[in-house]
Amino acid sequence: MKAELFDGRSQLLVKHFMFHPDADAGCLSRSLTADHFDAAMPHLNSRDVTLISVSRAPLEKINAYKRRMGSRLGHRPRPDQPRLAIASDGTW
Question: Strand order of the sheet with strand 74-77?
């Protein structure tokens, strides 16, 4: 699992994305911040850093929100949410 999360890099930056399991969208201010992650990815990746996001929402809701917002940021369910599937391909 470490290799999947780190995506071949030696450092992992984890950002909590506030998305309640009962909500239809992520937190407005966190969404604004996340809008800028795609542009930061090449800079972080070139410095051996992988950036992922975690939240409490089910992966299905996160995927739908990601498609709607056009984000490419990798996302994982929080470790305390074992019932959710973890994407192993670097997508959320």
Answer: 11-16, 49-55, 74-77
Indicate whether this model's pTM tops 0.90.
no
CA 2, CA 52: separation in Å to the nearest integer? 13
Distance of CA 38 to the CA centre of its chain: 11
Amino acid (1-letter code) at residue 73: L
Query: What's the length of the chain?
Result: 92
Tracing tokens 């070139």 back to the chain, one arrives at: 46
DSSP β-bridge partners for residue 90: none
pLDDT at 29 over 90: no
Nearest to 34 by CA among 88, 81, 70: 70
Residue ranges in the chain assigned as alpha helix (H): 2-6, 28-34, 37-45, 59-69
Which helix H or strand E contains 42, and what residues bound it? helix 37-45
